[in-house]
Amino acid sequence: MFRGSFTALITPFRNGKLDEKAYQELVERQIAAGTHGLVPCGTTGESPTLSHEEHMRVTEICIEVVAGRIPVIAGTGSNSTEEAIMLQRHAKEAGADAGLVVTPYYNKPTQAGLIAHFRAIVDAVDLPVIIYNIPGRSVVDMSVATMAELAAHPNIVGVKDATADLARPLRTRLACGEEFCQLSGEDATVVPFLSQGGHGCISVTANIAPKQCADLHNAWIAGDVAKVAEINDRLLPVHDAMFCESSPGPVKYAAGLMGLCGGELRLPLVEISESSKKKVRDALQGAGLLG
Question: What fold characterizes domain 4-224?
Fold first, then answer.
């Protein structure tokens, strides 16, 4: 079972190229802060604009630096089933613990198409899959019934739920069982998500506040509701700021402010506006993350 705070890692660039040294340092910082797991090459890692070679290298660096200390769920999804199989196969060979496979975007498959897509991937590569259900970006929404059908496959072990539907984790638990891992894809609603049967969160905010995010999940597991509420209150303005524009624009700006890496983005993403920069700075200062 994947449980706790998983960071959806940003991918640092320098002059348009992957900044390997900065990326290695980001991974080490996450482990030192107590993060429970890492997710390279997700939406926050700008996977749509990584070349295949870059995508695979980012995954490899993450796994090499982690060296088995915490789980790595590598982003391997695509709107092309064959491409997803290729990336899933690479993740297995590189030593990932699972692949995060997004519902195919732009193609707009039916529920039957989603079943065929995911079954093709897990039948081709013997590596666990976390379904990434994010209707806001991929247009399609995998139904609970479809997820339950896929959950019967031994290699489909959970979901990253970015639907923002807080009844969904309860419905999914009842349909798919307690052992089906549910990770939230939305920082701001993680506490109610956990209360409805969730097990953790794949977090954007954890890029800049890894200890606080990990502490929240540790407190939840320990049953310390007061501590959960205190951390959640302090982080909410940060969560909101991280999504004041399309992610990862705000979190990369925040990482740059904190000296973690450069804030460089790849087109078609561009630097966030001055008003958004102020929101990010104010949120970081309010949470004690920036002097």
Answer: TIM Barrel (3.20.20)
